[in-house]
Specification:
Length: about 240
């Protein structure tokens, strides 16, 4: 999905005083979409996040993402912990999502490789729908399927044949404050993965969404949870009082 899927949350965090930057990873939104499968991996995406921090001159940031973005967030925290003030992870795709992920994304790879005209035809139709006349989330969905067959196949290929998240041993060594949000009844992003991750991270809080659509249709509760977490990551640590002997 393009970065504007997080526009509402970004505005909420910014209104609370946070400096918020959203990005389109390679292959997403307005970023380049090369045909090379080796250009796409969780590792490469994490490197792009760190490169953006370098470009902005930001020594540290609270890193966050949804689904693929959640996994990229974990990779950044595992490989560049000194740049991470905290992590906000929604719907991670880990061990319990493996079978559904294969069933969901393998047909995309097959279609893009064997039936590229189907991908091109869908893109031809969706690009002609004016985004201004459809609901905001419908526009996000239309932008999500706006792919040429070559880059789409390369994208799925690259993710399939690379590791999708840091292994459990690395995840347990992530000490940054973490907010993990899981959804019930979501086979691609099972709540069991989010709960497992929250149990692995030594400094984490788990928040269960009421449904997969809560943060999209009624975002007030989770926006408040996320805002408190992000602002809390920047509060100075309390000094312990010294007692006189």
């Amino acid at each position: 999905m393009p970065r504007r899927m997080h526009a509402s949350l970004a505005r909420t965090l910014a209104s609370a005083g946070a400096h918020v930057v959203t990005l389109d990873l390679l292959g997403h939104g307005r970023s380049d979409k090369p045909d090379d499968p080796f250009a796409y991996s969780i590792t490469a995406f994490a490197e792009q996040v760190v490169a953006l921090l370098d470009h902005l001159g930001a020594q540290q940031a609270v890193i966050g993402g949804t689904s693929l973005g959640a996994n990229v967030t974990l990779e950044v925290a595992a490989t560049a912990p000194e740049r991470v003030r905290g992590i906000l992870v929604e719907m991670p795709v880990l061990d319990n999502a493996l079978e559904v992920a294969i069933v969901s994304f393998a047909p995309l790879l097959l279609t893009a490789r064997v039936f590229p005209f189907a991908v091109s035809g869908l893109r031809f139709v969706t690009r002609r729908v004016p985004r201004g006349i459809v609901p905001w989330w419908v526009g996000i969905g239309l932008d999500t399927v706006d792919h040429k067959p070559g880059p789409l196949a390369a994208y799925v290929h690259g993710l399939f044949f690379g590791h999708v998240a840091p292994p459990a041993a690395q995840r347990r060594r992530i000490t940054a404050p973490a907010l993990v949000i899981g959804h019930p009844r979501d086979p691609l992003h099972p709540a069991s993965d989010a709960e497992m991750l929250a149990g692995e991270l030594p400094n984490s809080t788990f928040e269960r969404a009421k449904s997969i659509l809560e943060w999209r249709r009624s975002p007030e509760r989770l926006d408040l949870v996320a805002t408190k977490f992000v602002l809390g990551c920047w509060r100075p640590a309390r000094r312990s009082r010294r007692t006189a002997n």
